[in-house]
Amino acid sequence: MSLEADWFLRAHPEITTVEALLPDCNGIMRGKWLPRHKLAKIFDGELKLPKTALSLDIWGRDVEELVFASGDADGICRPVEGSLLPTPWSAGGQHGQIMLSMFDADGTPYMGDPRHVLKQVVSRFQDAGWTPVVAAELEFSLVRWDNVVPIHTCPSPAGSQPVGGNMYGLDVLNQHQQMMEELRVACELQDLPFDGVVKESAPSQYEINMQHVPSPVLAAKQILMMKRLIKGVAHKHGLVASFMPKPFEDSAGNGMHVHCSVLDQQGNNVFDDGTERGTPLLHQAIAGCLQHMADSMIIFSPGFNGYRRFQPGTHAPTYPSWGYENRTVAVRVPAGSHAARRLEHRVAGADCNPYLQFAVVLAAMLDGIEQQASPGNPTRGDGYSQKTGSLPGYMHEALDRFRESEFIRAALGGELQRIFTLTKEQEEAEFRRRISLLEYQSYLERT
User: Fold this and answer.
1) Taking 90 as the threshold, does the pLDDT of residue 387 lie above it?
2) Model confidence pLDDT, tens digit, residues 240-260
3) How far, in Å, CA of 351 to CA of 410, rounded?
4) In whole numbers, what is the pLDDT of the chain averaged over residues?
5) What's the pTM?
6) Which residues neighbour 196 within 8 Å (Cβ) at sequence distance 6 or greater?
7) Contact 239, 143 (CB under 8 A)
8) 355, 361, 362, 368 alpha-carbon torsion, rounded to 10°
9) Residue 216 has what pLDDT?
């Protein structure tokens, strides 16, 4: 048994079950529950799952074309360093968890695993002597579920909808004080970079801030663990923590903004020139993000519901624009210390896979730098009113761009592009064939 596994079991005699977690392309956890005495099996490389477990659709269904083409061959699941941890929200605290990554039978990384795809992108920065630094803001809705529609937890008179979301309201946080405190303690136990929580603009909407990390691969793992932790703690309190991008028609949706800067070998920020403007490298990185934003849209918004978020006035960008200290644009340069000069990518929904999100953002930044591209003039004022270079407004449009994109093929690799395309095609076809309640209300009796 490995030293890590042996230490963990000695330190946590209360744990009876280890949840082995493999994040798929949707960022959904797949895997197995194993009794504690089987933990050594994972570290010895004996745990196998079909490679197609990474390409299941959002409902957990196989994509038959992928299954038949591969014979549903197994891959080897190896543990991700530092992911063997207790889950304090589990019943009786008797469960632990460990995250997995997929390898081919010969021991090489399977490039349908988003984690390996991101590692490959990060290696390109390392080859240039650079270190990408990233941080994330996670928005989620804290709701009750009546098995038909979600119900706001934000206070309102009986039988009425909340008016406004009490943004930055401390009284709302006080109402969930016990849950928020358990969340903070759980983050400490799992060594997650919790940097505070705020009440967001929509009713029942909150935002968790995560600290800057000089490793996008580590940061992506921490985001997935944080989302799981938030869901687990909320469930313990009889609530649903949802990262659905647009859970309520008349409210702003849930996004996942990411902040990115780059350090050189001396630890200096290559975007900092000592002024508010930032270096040419910053502008080139922004230009790459704008240039490849439309091709990457299905990564930023991987589900059918997410495209309802991109509407004017709902705090989600509708055009590939940029600006200084402007929250109506897609790529914002925040004000603040020159040494912390960075870009904030504001497009992705909270449902996106952070491994793939970081991969396309960083690859786009690097491409812009290599091309010495120009982002054009920054947007001043209302970025929602821009009418140039619109982003895909529907899932099928985003999927078409992704499927044919040479940038995506170069950035993520042909295998990931192929399996993600087929998975999303299956999901989009399911939504397209379903008849909504609104259609019955509109057409059943009137036509």
Assistant:
1) no
2) 999 999 998 888 899 999 999
3) 24
4) 92
5) 0.94
6) 208, 209
7) yes
8) 160
9) 98
Evaluate the CA torsion angle 409, 410, 415, 421 in order and state its sign.
negative
Can you say how many angstroms the Cα of residue 194 is from the centroid of all Cα atoms in its chain?
16
Strands annotated E in 147-280: 150-152, 194-199, 205-210, 240-242, 256-263
C-alpha distances out from residue 441 to 15, 249, 368, 430, Å: 52, 17, 48, 21
Q: What is the mean pLDDT of residues 121-143?
A: 96
| Statement: residue 159 has pLDDT above 60 | no
Cβ distance 100 to 78 under 8 Å? yes
Task: Characterize the bridge pairing of strands 131-145 and 205-210.
Answer: antiparallel
Burial of 19: CB neighbours in 10 Å, binned 0-12, 13-18, 19+: middle
Q: Which of 120, 42, 21, 77 is nearest to 415 (CA)?
A: 120
What span, in angstroms and rounded, lies between the C-alpha atoms of 163 and 170?
17
Look up residue 70 and give its two tokens.
């591969």
Cβ atoms of residues 155 and 172 within 8 Å: yes
User: Considering Cα of 384, then 390, then 395, then 398, what sign does the dihedral take?
Assistant: negative
Which segments of 346-431 are extended strands (E)?
A: none
Band of pLDDT at residue 160, cut at 50, 70 and 90:
low
Do the beta carbons of residue 203 and residue 164 sit within 8 Å? yes
Which parts of 55-168 fold into alpha helices (H)?
64-70, 114-127
